[in-house]
Specification:
Layout (H helix, E strand, L loop, with lengths): L3 E5 L3 H12 L3 E5 L3 H8 L10 H8 L10 E4 L2 H7 L2 E4 L15 H10 L7 E5 L7 H12 L6 E5 L9 H6 L4 E4 L3 H10 L1 H5 L4 E4 L1 H32 L3 H9 L20 H14 L7 H24 L9 E5 L14 H11 L3 E5 L4 H7 L4 E2 L3 H5 L4 E4 L4 H4 L3 H7 L4 E4 L6 H6 L3 E4 L6
Parallel strand pairs: 1-2, 1-4, 2-3, 4-5, 5-6, 7-8, 9-10, 9-12, 10-11, 12-13, 13-14
The structure holds uridine-5'-diphosphate-glucuronic acid (UGA).
């Protein structure tokens, strides 16, 4: 009989994982503690913008015409425990308020709610990003609290999906990492992932701490790569070099590679910033803080870019105060193809200029609702052209395709001054300069 799968927590990770498991042919039951989320999902609607996810969901959610009916949702823990052979825990682990460490309360609560209902053998699989050592503790707590005892087993299976590519990354992962303690756990997970493994995704079996560490070290490496090129951008600015050319030339060395070498206002979002901080905090607890002190520098290079962007805008406006100046901000999401504004560099820059007296108008193709909620005092426009109307300077801060396709000439007619600052090094300088704009970008010479 095919395995039955449950997914606990239906945010980015969980909603995508649940739909992907149904796509792979399994019967899936998703659980969340937020009733509105469950109601939306039951209607086949996704609570966030993620390309392709709604289609995949509608293809499988029971009750939707033409669907496979393999995917259902509930708020009932007993139903979940009764249904599933394999339970994936996909809840959030945000940064703790006022601390670097990550907040484990959602993970702890998911385990505490599920365990007492486990009256038949089950594999619980953690997918959330957690401090190393958590799986060991949770495994003990799980078997102690479950009526089946040691037959409630734990495995750790970190997730590497990127927002904006969540469906693709989940159905065709570049690797599957499983931390297991028994042949049974490995066998069950091989069964779950037989599809992608059959298509060639490497399946890496490890112990618990290694599986947990793969995730945090992968995100630390990515953050390091971005801050490395942003540090080079700072040097380029001082020396008159061009960081975009530099990155291109570095990238041809396949030991370095060209990905994640886009200089600009740096990384944000719900993962990279909080993961490197939680990693430092955990290393400190383990007495290995020295090993990760470099991440402090990675973090500060990254945060410095936001301030640098503000200074570039000030300079473009004549070097004085922002008071009375109109600033158009293109982009609010932390990256394109996402409506996520958590720790968004774009909104951070917009907010700083606003707090210094600038009249900021923001436009983002998908992030407006979330941006308004987070920063209600900023000005918002319904289109890019409306945001730019009357602006003394235009800041390009999230590299949506829509912005690359803007017509520089007609945008120039509505702006009060033709000055554009590219915080993502994603626009074509030649096009903008040809349309009469002063184009400036981070880490590149003025003209
Ligand atoms: C990141 C990782 O890439 C995923 O592998 C991981 O699964 C996920 O975190 C997670 O932990 O859940 P994500 O947060 O979706 O994924 O975003 P990324 O694509 O990594 O981008 C992060 C930030 O870096 C964005 O603000 C982006 O604009 C910025 N970035 C990226 C750069 O500034 N330069 C680059 O060259 C690349």
């Amino acid at each position: 009989m095919a395995l039955k799968i449950t997914v606990i927590g239906t945010g980015y990770l969980g909603a995508t994982h649940a739909a992907a498991m149904a796509e792979l042919g399994f019967e899936v039951l998703g659980l969340d503690v937020v009733p509105e989320k469950i109601e939306m999902l039951q209607r086949g609607e996704v609570p966030m913008y993620e390309p392709g996810l709604e289609e995949l969901l509608r293809k499988h959610v029971a009750g939707i015409e033409g669907s496979s009916g393999r995917l259902r949702f509930t708020m009932d823990w007993a139903e979940v425990a009764d249904f599933g052979d394999v339970h994936f825990v996909c809840v959030n682990t945000p940064q703790k308020h006022g601390e670097y460490a990550c907040d484990m309360s959602y993970v702890d609560s998911a385990f505490a709610q599920l365990a007492p209902h486990l009256t038949r053998p089950a594999l619980v699989v953690g997918k959330s990003t957690v401090p190393v050592g958590s799986a060991d503790r949770l495994a003990r707590e799980l078997s102690a609290a479950a009526p089946v005892g040691a037959d409630a087993e734990l495995a750790w299976n970190p997730e590497f999906l990127r927002e904006g590519f969540a469906v693709q990354d989940t159905l065709h992962p570049d690797r599957i990492v499983v931390g297991v303690r028994s042949a049974n756990a490995e066998k069950l997970l091989r069964e779950v992932y037989a599809g992608p493994v059959g298509e060639g995704s490497p399946f890496v079996v490890t112990d618990f701490p290694t599986a947990e560490l793969v995730k945090t070290s992968a995100n630390s490496f990515l953050a390091t790569k971005i801050s490395f090129i942003n540090a080079m951008a700072e040097v380029c600015e001082a020396a008159g070099g061009d960081v975009v050319k530099l990155a291109e030339a570095l990238g041809y060395d396949d030991r370095i590679g060209k990905k994640f070498l886009r200089a600009g206002i740096g990384f944000g979002g719900g993962c990279l910033p909080k993961d490197i901080r939680a990693f430092m905090a955990r290393a400190g607890e383990l007495g290995a803080d020295q090993a990760l002190t470099f991440l402090r520098e990675i973090d500060s290079i990254n945060m410095r870019r936001r301030g640098q962007m503000v200074e570039m805008a000030r300079e473009a406006l004549g070097g004085g105060s922002f008071l009375g100046k109109r600033v158009a901000v293109l982009g609010a999401a932390f990256k394109p193809d996402s409506d996520d504004v958590r720790d968004s560099p774009a909104l951070n820059v917009a907010g700083q200029i606003h707090l210094q007296g600038g009249q900021v108008t923001v436009y983002d193709p998908k992030g407006m609702v979330n941006a308004r909620r987070l920063f209600p005092t900023l000005g918002y426009a319904e289109t890019a052209v409306d945001a730019v109307r009357g602006a003394d300077v235009v800041l390009h801060l999230t590299e949506w395709r829509e912005f690359r396709e803007l017509d520089a000439a007609s945008l120039g007619e509505v702006a009060s001054a033709r000055v554009i600052l590219d915080g993502r090094n994603a626009l074509d300088p030649a096009v903008w300069r040809a349309a009469g704009w002063t184009y400036r970008a981070m880490g590149r010479p003025a003209a």
